[in-house]
Design a protein that fits this description.
single chain, alpha+beta, minor pseudopilin epsh fold, 3-stranded antiparallel β-sheet, 7 helices, about 40% helix, binds fe (ii) ion
Length: about 230
């Protein structure tokens, strides 16, 4: 499994599965800076073309623009924090920059996990895959898990619904990430995340349409990607 460490000890996602947005096949992009630990992060070239069934072109284009903002601010903050550290600064200004870095970096990575698993030609979950079997063993059935996952995604608040795996035990859990970086289960691996910030759905579904949006996302989840993260 391809694991990423987030914020030092916090691993919330695997991004090695490649892109499944329009025109990009598995493994098309390696998101890791190659060989240079100080290299900037590059916005990954997700392209949803004229939109996805249930998610319009304009909504997705706006969402991708927001994602690029997270990437740019992550790069800027990393530079600012390091410059401060190299000159021995440790006061409130650099402390606040570190807090913002957690927000921006997590926002960047979560969007990559989300977009990477969205596809107009999504693969359905495989009943024979170990992930499917683990879901059934945990919740009783795939449908029961989805009901709980949807309930997670429609919790009050701004954040993300997530299906996580604890790599230490294999245990699955649904989780809620508040904003991007809060209430995260440290060390757990994000198998699936759904963005439920208002920008993810209000344009197409209105402010009260989050449940309809989550229903629309369900058939777009590419289980080839999710299963690869398991
Ligand atoms: Fe978003």
């Amino acid at each position: 499994m391809d694991r990423r460490t987030l914020l030092g000890t916090l691993a919330i996602g695997a991004v090695g599965a490649g892109l499944h947005a329009k025109g990009l096949g598995p493994g098309a992009v390696d998101a890791k800076p190659a060989g240079n630990p100080l290299a900037d992060y590059a916005a990954r070239p997700f392209d949803f073309g004229t939109g996805l069934p249930g998610l319009g072109k304009d909504l997705l284009a706006e969402h991708l623009t927001l994602y690029k903002g997270y990437v740019g601010r992550t790069n800027a903050l990393l530079k600012e924090v390091l410059a401060a550290e190299r000159t021995g600064q440790a006061g409130p200004a650099v402390q606040e920059l570190r807090r913002r870095l957690g927000f921006e970096f997590s926002g960047m990575r979560l969007h990559e996990l989300y977009f990477e698993a969205l596809s107009a030609s999504a693969a359905k979950p495989s009943g024979t895959h170990p992930l499917h079997q683990a879901i059934t063993a945990t919740w009783g059935s795939f449908d029961a898990w989805w009901a709980a996952f949807k309930a997670t995604c429609t919790m009050t608040g701004i954040g993300w619904g997530a299906l996580l795996k604890d790599p230490a035990t294999g245990r699955l859990m649904n989780a809620w990430f508040q904003d991007h970086e809060n209430a995260v289960a440290v060390g757990a691996q994000a198998l699936l995340v759904v963005d439920v910030w208002e920008h993810a759905y209000v344009k197409d579904y209105g402010a009260t349409g989050r449940a309809k949006y989550v229903d629309a996302v369900k058939p777009l989840i590419d289980w080839r990607v999710v299963e690869k993260r398991f």
